[in-house]
């Protein structure tokens, strides 16, 4: 069984290992709890959000199973006209591959729905934007 801090830590480690070894080894990244000065190049930010939980079994303290849910969001940014749409498409594809059909090593977490969202460039925005959202579930004993 896993806890909220274990899941967040495992997700960060998973992202680092897969992102650096994948097609984006030179694409800078940060996590939601870090200071970051974005470069004038493509970059990613990873956010972990927990949402609902439900008690799945009855029992005394320390012997109850809770189903927990959350989502990992990879926020992808690049300056407009840098590298073309192909660069963003590759980053989106790679971010999706991080989660689709995967489990987090050493935890009970597994990913479910993985959804890309190509936002484009907001009217007054500095960045061309996209996100990849991956819902996950895991169990905790309390």
Average pLDDT reading: 86
Residue windows where pLDDT falls under 50 for at least 5 positions: none
Rounded Rg:
17 Å
Relative helix content: 10-25%
Please state how the strands of the largest beta sheet are arranged side by side: 1-2-3-5-4
Say how many strands there are.
5
User: Hey, roughly how much beta strand do the residues contain?
Assistant: 35-45%
Main structural class: alpha+beta
Shape: elongated
Order of helices and strands: HEEEHEE
Query: End-to-end distance, in Å?
Result: 10 Å
What do these coordinates show?
Strand 4 (110-120) and strand 5 form a beta hairpin. This protein is 24% helix and 39% strand. It contains 2 helices and 5 strands. A 5-stranded mixed β-sheet has the order 1-2-3-5-4, covered by helices on one side. It has helices at 4-21, 84-99, and strands spanning 29-31, 43-55, 65-78, 110-120, 128-141. The model has no long low-confidence stretch (mean pLDDT 86). The chain is α+β, with helices and mostly antiparallel strands and 142 residues long. It starts with a helix and ends with a strand.
